[in-house]
Amino acid sequence: MTEWPLWEVFIRSQHGLAHKHVGSLHAPDAELAIRNARDVYTRRNEGISIWVVRSADVVASSPGDKEALFEPANSKVYRHPTFFPMPDEVKHI
Amino acid sequence: MYAQMVDTGLKEVRTADDMPPEERAFQARIDADIKIEPKDWMPEAYRRTLIRQISQHAHSEIVGMLPEGNWVTRAPTLKRKAILMAKIQDEAGHGLYLYSAAETLGISRDQMLADLHAGRAKYSSIFNYPTLTWADIGTIGWLVDGAAIMNQIPLCRCSYGPYARAMVRICKEESFHQRQGYDIMLAMSRGTDEQQAMAKDALARWWWPSLMMFGPSDAASVHSGQSAAWKIKLLSNDELRQRFVDQTVPQADFLGLTVPDPALRWNDETGHYDFGAIDWSEFHNVIKGNGPCNRDRLQARVNAWDEGAWVREAAMAHAEKRAAGAARAVASIQQQGRTA
Ligand SMILES: [Fe+2]
Ligand SMILES: [Fe+2]
């Protein structure tokens, strides 16, 4: 028999943060994936909401594209507020 | 440890001269404490060694449920029973986190379980000893989970991202295991004469096997050098064992229990406890499959797998049937849309 499909599990904690990837598990369908995720990843009040996504449906960037994707941001330091020194006399900015 | 003897498949530690450029870049990332992630290039030996190590660790978590499961129906109170079940459930979770980490390296969980069930994969020697009395459950939490924590905390910093992240989750959950064990030992060592005798007997039986959990002495650990260079082993077996002894002996003293080692004494010069020689023939014998419970443990695993097959198949068949039903419903709505 073939293995149950793999699912990625995302949990949102109580503090209003975004769902965060916590791990994966095997389950035959979405309903059981959620139930299993409850049992495995929220035994100590870690979350109030669960997302599950079939691992096969996740599209990821590849390590080889790292430069093409992320390199352009390196030269654009003016995107950070610290790029603009402010005179000491100027407040609340 | 939970992975006591991991073969790297290499005879000597790889040096920069042995390495092609991509491997040199890989090693440089490890040296700079940058995590290796599943899709990154890695040497085959690193991948294979990690699969061996992580799957041994995962197998230990789930086989470790068996000696404790032996006491669920006989726990002395409802509270102790609930606590023990929560601990055992955690161990199942630990197995799952670790199998998932290993799967990112390109092996299926079914394959890992098949290797375990066929006797091709190892798990920790410690789980091949029997749990004879309730004090054994206390001693396992205190010593076995204690030794596991000692080994797992450094692994939170290991070079492979998914393994490191699994270890962080596991470490968060482990300290409850050790404390509930010590709590049982506190109750028993302050209990009736009979309970005190059980506590003493359990420590006498589990002490040496617990020290063996850290694996062979450094002198006999041929593969540690490469594993250290890859940062999948951060402290040596003997270092971890010494830390464990130093930490545990005062805890035994507090319980009023004597560690069964006549050579054990505090050494003012080294600032550590000296302890007696370990009987490595017993260790190798258990690893080879001749411990008191090896056969039982493996049989219990195989039975659980075989007897659960119909559940796995039925759940999958049900999911497929529902998915097919939903697809048919969508198709008929589309069909109606076209004919209308
Ligand atoms: Fe565990
Ligand atoms: Fe544990």
Structure summary:
Chain A has 93 residues and is α+β, with helices and mostly antiparallel strands. Chain A contains 2 helices and 3 strands, in the order E-E-H-E-H.
Characterise the protein shown here.
The complex is a heterodimer of chains A (93) and B (340). Chain A has 93 residues and is an alpha+beta fold. In chain A, 23% of the residues lie in helices and 22% in strands. Chain A contains 2 helices and 3 strands. Chain A has helices spanning 30-41, 66-74, and strands at residues 6-12, 20-26, 49-54. The longest helix of chain A has 12 residues, at 30-41. Chain A is elongated. Chain B is mainly α and 340 residues long. Chain B contains 13 helices and 2 strands, in the order ααααααααααββααα. Chain B has helices at residues 21-31, 44-63, 65-69, 78-103, 109-117, 134-155, 161-189, 193-212, 224-229, 237-255, 280-290, 294-307, 309-339, and strands spanning 265-267, 272-274. In chain B, strands 1-2 form a two-stranded antiparallel sheet. Chain B is globular, with a radius of gyration of 23 Å. At the A-B interface, strand 2 and helix 1 of A face helix 4, helix 7 and helix 13 of B.
What does the secondary structure layout of this molecule look like, with pairings?
The complex is a heterodimer of chains A (93) and B (340).
Chain A lengths: L5 E7 L7 E7 L3 H12 L7 E6 L11 H9 L19
Antiparallel strand pairs in A: 1-2, 1-3
Chain B lengths: L20 H11 L12 H20 L1 H5 L8 H26 L5 H9 L16 H22 L5 H29 L3 H20 L11 H6 L7 H19 L9 E3 L4 E3 L5 H11 L3 H14 L1 H31 L1
Helix pairs in contact in B: 2-4, 4-7, 6-7, 6-8, 6-10
The complex binds fe (ii) ion (2 copies).
